[in-house]
Amino acid sequence: MPLQTTFFGANVGFKFFDENKKLFKSNPVLTVGITYGETNMFASHASNSEFVHTDTLVSISGAETWYKGVSTYYSYDRKYSFDKLGLNVGIIYRYNPDGRWALLGGFNLKTLFSFNSTVTETYSVNTHDTYEYEPNAYVSLGYSNYDNISSSETHKTRLNTTLIMSMPLGLDFRIGKKNLFWKRIHITVGAQPSFNMFYIPEIGTIVSGNLIINSGLRLEIL
């Protein structure tokens, strides 16, 4: 089931004390935050076509036969769209955390709830006169009298929930080398292999896996 999702989020990181309860350890870091997302899910597609024969044309030599008729193509699409808001919590480890470049990895869990949830159903019928070498062979000489009828309906849907478990992997780049302010600002880029569970009341539970590409800024306070 194809889906498109965009996430925006903000997190706060918490460091743990060392064994002496005097200094903060560099690893691991507990992250807690909020996430907003927009999702478009193409739930179903169905189509069918037919050719209604109305006349037969035979060349003078008799070597070719063309079938005149009306071709009709039917299609139906259903798409769910919803915004999501929720909480996420994770554990992040950084290799070489005090250096300018650092590798990061960890685990993250997101729980999101929908709002502005809708389903859009689109119906279309395309008809045209055609000449075909063989009935339903789709080898056509030409089209005429093309007609297209399309309609769509959008309805509100019930609350749905999303659970995402992912493994953040990436790079952390410290912008400054000497300036204290710029040394506290980091650019992060990476990817998150993820396992997703969507519960949509009208469909049921959908399980999927994907790769989330992410980038962001990190401000180091302590």
Describe this structure in words.
- The protein is an all-beta fold.
- The protein has one domain (3-219).
- The chain contains 1 helix and 9 strands; from the N terminus they run E-E-E-E-E-E-E-H-E-E.
- Strands 1, 2, 3, 4, 5, 6, 7, 8 and 9 form a 9-stranded antiparallel sheet that branches.
- Strand 4 and strand 5 form a beta hairpin.
- The protein is elongated.
- The mean pLDDT is 86.
Shape label: elongated
Strand content: over 45%
Number of domains: 1
Number of strands: 9
Low-confidence spans: none
Task: Give the proportion of residues in helices.
Answer: under 10%
Main β sheet profile:
9 strands, antiparallel
pLDDT average, as an integer?
86
Task: Describe the structure concisely for a colleague.
This protein has 222 residues and is mainly β. The radius of gyration is 28 Å and the shape is elongated.
How would you describe this structure in keywords?
222 residues, nine-stranded antiparallel beta sheet, single chain, 1 helix, mainly beta, 78% strand
Write the layout of secondary structure elements.
Layout: E1 3-17, E2 24-58, E3 65-95, E4 101-132, E5 140-156, E6 161-166, E7 169-174, H1 180-183, E8 185-200, E9 204-219
Antiparallel strand pairs: 1-2, 2-3, 3-4, 4-5, 4-6, 4-7, 6-8, 7-8, 8-9
